[in-house]
Amino acid sequence: MVDLPGRGTTYVTDTPGPTPDAPVVVLLHAVGCTGLLTWFPSIGPLSRRFRVVTMDLRWHGRGIQSEEFSVHDCADDVAALVEELDLGPAIVAGYSMGSIVAQRVWRRHPEIVAGLVLCATTDRFRSTVAERSFHAATGLAMAATRGFSRSRTAVRAARTAAAALDLQPDDIHDWAFREFRSTSPWAVGQAVAALGRHHSRPWLGRIDVPTAVVVTTQDHVLPARNQVALARRIPGATTHEVAAGHAACVLQSERFVPAFLEAVTTVSARRRGSRSSAAASASGR
């Protein structure tokens, strides 16, 4: 548990990278989930190149409890964590709801963002249709917990993550179900309502950090065409397609993780390249 001064406490995992100065990736989770439940298949592969940090967003899991939920507050929580742990500038990556929060982190705190990786994302929703879609996404997340027993890849990833993070669950299915149930349906409803008010289209074109968009091409919650359209609105954004649905981060992790790792690595390389060019230009002056 990490205390964010003036904001509250939240549950954080911090997995070291291969070297003390490895680039940092902050992972933001999907609605109705937790940091670990969304990202456990990705943490191990990512940590071979990066320092990997997850957090439970407010009202989710062991995240900050407050009177109200807003995407803006979530973005400010991320910035507070980056400052508290001295992580920045960091690559901020988000899945579904987490990708919305990641966009807002750049909008409100650009100085802490080295790059963005937006997965299964969108730039806006449309009233009740969007809310129904996100409720459907929550149902998929529940299906994902049931699917652990049928997905050998997910079971292997969960066991690896459990050992690395000292979770030691007696049963992977039970652990995942506990993670899922740690967020109340009422909290999910409030989060869905807040997400319905999100609209980043007017300022996406001003994003000035390396950005990658991981497109889930079989997504029935956030259509792939909308994800691709968002990527085209961000200057220089790369797209990384994965033939999977909205629960790809867990149930189809064998497809999602390689595409996600490629996206993060691309953003990191572009970040290093831009810093090197800036340094060369400065020395030339």
Automatic annotation (TrEMBL):
> Which Gene Ontology molecular function entries are recorded, alphabetically?
hydrolase activity
AB hydrolase-1 domain residues are 23-249
Record's keyword terms, sorted? Hydrolase
Q: Does the keyword Hydrolase apply?
A: yes
A single Gene Ontology CC annotation of this entry is:
membrane
Q: Where are the transmembrane segments?
A: none
Which protein are we looking at? Alpha/beta fold hydrolase
Q: Please tell me the species this chain comes from.
A: Nocardioides agri
